[in-house]
Structures are given as structure tokens and as C-alpha cells.
Design goal:
Layout lengths: L2 H13 L2 H31 L1 H17 L1 H17 L3 E6 L3 E6 L5 E4 L2 H8 L6 E5 L6 E5 L7 E5 L6 H7 L5 E3 L4 E4 L5 H7 L4
Antiparallel strand pairs: 1-2, 1-4, 2-3, 4-5, 5-6, 6-8, 7-8
């Protein structure tokens, strides 16, 4: 065997060495995993991101449009409750009861009156109506739906910069409806969600 043949055999051995094979395998596997993650997170972002929000907003807006007077009536009633409980941190209204929580005191709940229940029943898809002291002059209608994420209808003064509000409070998206009414997408950050709705 000549020297050139020996060099060729050595080069082939180096090309097929276990270390090289392992390195190439790791690079290929890493590239495949990265491509898979990009594809999966891209699909999740599309499904749960703004595209999904827009479709959900379309459905909510249509239902809200059909029940504008019912939402306005519920909003006026919640503002009456807030005026009657000026020290309340949170007022929650569900179909069966209205609860008031003041600072340093346990939450107090009363069954809804027949009139309040009728007002609530006229709404579509609302799971809870909220008033919070840290969001003065705002009433929130929260739509949980069958599955998360949760969407919210906010009624605020007509001159509210709703985009800035949504950004500052962690809402992923927003859509302005009639003056003063805004749909808010979900809050992806759990800590921000807890702070916004005073769950802490």
C-alpha cells in the first residue's frame, strides 16, 4: 500500500469517526427540534393571538350590538351600586348574587333582586360584571366562554385612550366599539391578570 493510499484511508476514517457522526447527528436533531418549535409556537400564536382575538371580537361585537340597551341598563345599575358603596374595592355581580368587598372587611353578598336578575338575564354570555376602585368610572363585563382565554367588555368615559389602557394593563388586544365601549382581549401574563382583577 502506497503512502497516498494510507492517507486516503486515514481521511476516510476521520470522516467516519464516532465523534464526527455524533456531532453531525446532534446538529441535525437540534435543527429539527428548532424547526418543530417554531412551527408549533407559530401555530399557537396564530390560534391564540390576534387572529383568534379578531374572530372572537367579531362574534362578541355582533351579540353586543343586538343587546346594546341591556348592556347600558346593566352598566347604569352597576354605577348605582358603586355610588351606594363608595368604600368598595370590588363589586361583583353574577346572576344569583351581588357581592361587595371593602378594604379590610370580608366580602358581603346578597341575592339579586328579581329586577336585577332580569337585567342580568337580558345580557348575552356575560359571566360576571365588575366594578373596581382602582379602575374608577369603568364597568367590566367578563366573558369566560366554554374555554379560556377570557374576553372583557369595558365601559369607560368616552375620552378614554383605550389602546393605551389596554397596553398598560396587559391586555393582548383591544377593539373600540361605540363611544365608551371597548372589547379587551385576554391578559396572557398570569401575574398581570391577578393584579388587574385583584385576585392577590
Amino acid at each position: 500500500m502506497g503512502r497516498s493510499d494510507a492517507l486516503e484511508l486515514e481521511r476516510r476514517a476521520r470522516r467516519r469517526s464516532p465523534g464526527r457522526i455524533l456531532l453531525v447527528t446532534l446538529i441535525v436533531v437540534a435543527a429539527a427540534v428548532l424547526a418543530w418549535r417554531v412551527a408549533v409556537f407559530g401555530m399557537l400564536g396564530w390560534h391564540f393571538g390576534s387572529g383568534f382575538d379578531e374572530r372572537r371580537f367579531d362574534k362578541l361585537e355582533q351579540q353586543i350590538d343586538h343587546r346594546q340597551s341591556a348592556f347600558a341598563k346593566a352598566d347604569a345599575r352597576m354605577r348605582q351600586l358603586a355610588a351606594a358603596h363608595p368604600k368598595a374595592e370590588v363589586i361583583t355581580w353574577i346572576q344569583a348574587r351581588i357581592c361587595v368587598r371593602e378594604a379590610g372587611r370580608p366580602e358581603e353578598c346578597d341575592p339579586t333582586s328579581r329586577k336585577d336578575k332580569a337585567t342580568y338575564d337580558a345580557l348575552w354570555g356575560t359571566d360576571v360584571i365588575l366594578h373596581q376602585s382602582h379602575d374608577k368610572n369603568r364597568v367590566f363585563f367578563r366573558f369566560y366562554g366554554n374555554d379560556p382565554p377570557i374576553y372583557t367588555l369595558m365601559h369607560a368615559p368616552a375620552d378614554t385612550d383605550t389602546e393605551s389602557y389596554a397596553d398598560a394593563h396587559g391586555f393582548r388586544t383591544s377593539r373600540s366599539l361605540d363611544p365608551g365601549w371597548t372589547l379587551l382581549g385576554p391578559i396572557p401574563d398570569l401575574d398581570q391578570e391577578n393584579r388587574q382583577w385583584q385576585y392577590d
